[in-house]
């Protein structure tokens, strides 16, 4: 397939790996903050192909996984109401809340529908003027612009029965939280290319300077990842810490001005809880005051919800890069994609799901023998 096959070329991959091997002289720990990159790394065995000195740590880059339990419970509370049609991307339906998930709500009679775009939910609202239509707006900077557009369009078209349950998160404050954590081992970041295609790169030089870490904007195909690693390792070996763009075919320094203008109009920055991690200051977006009547939390007054994470699930440690998924006692036994205990096993971008799907069931050495892709 054009524009994909070129970035999976084994000969070019070997050349990049040889270059990394020739450059590295000591151990380095790099973090990717994107679930799509995590899946590429595990699916293609990139972490196993890299020299032993280069460790890839998976960060909190899966949007479904970091959506806080309290918001999942609020979604179920709203979706249970008879007047509501609750619309969501499919991944969210199986994310465990405190005592059930949205699939269970649907089984109990809730009108929960899977949509592929927030604008689909807007169409449903237009077609059902006597019902309340709520869209579950979650994710990073990448999914925020279309969600902002849906809210903006609802206002413009006077579709009053449409609202949004918003739980958007922002990557730069998460990098700051990771770097200030006492257990942090990260020495360089592969920044998520799709996030930077929207937001540009201007939020990152301050972080690179403050924490003296290289930040390399990186794409999603195997060669993209290897090029991101190569540039990060090169900086580390030279003692540099700049922001570099290894994904110029999609990312411009200024990002996407139209998308950013839409975000600025509809959302405002707020503190946000990340599932398994806790509250990170200024790390999220909520609807701006002028759109408050389209905020489902206000419209349905879902307050007073107390939550309790299942103690067996260690996804908080997985999301912070402190634990590899197969090091969790429940991995592959009581927790599988069919019986997930945590969101990181549910989502198509979750690290636990990636390790399970691509048969990372044990130590790296055992995986080299057991993995069909290693
Ligand atoms: S394997 Fe399951 S229980 Fe363990 S951290 Fe992952 S999602 Fe949670």
TrEMBL record:
<protein>
    <submittedName>
        <fullName>Hydrogenase formation protein HypD</fullName>
    </submittedName>
</protein>
<keyword id="KW-0408">Iron</keyword>
<keyword id="KW-0479">Metal-binding</keyword>
<dbReference type="InterPro" id="IPR042243">
    <property type="entry name" value="HypD_1"/>
</dbReference>
<dbReference type="InterPro" id="IPR042244">
    <property type="entry name" value="HypD_2_sf"/>
</dbReference>
<dbReference type="Pfam" id="PF01924">
    <property type="entry name" value="HypD"/>
</dbReference>
<dbReference type="InterPro" id="IPR002780">
    <property type="entry name" value="Hyd_form_HypD"/>
</dbReference>
<comment type="similarity">
    <text>Belongs to the HypD family.</text>
</comment>
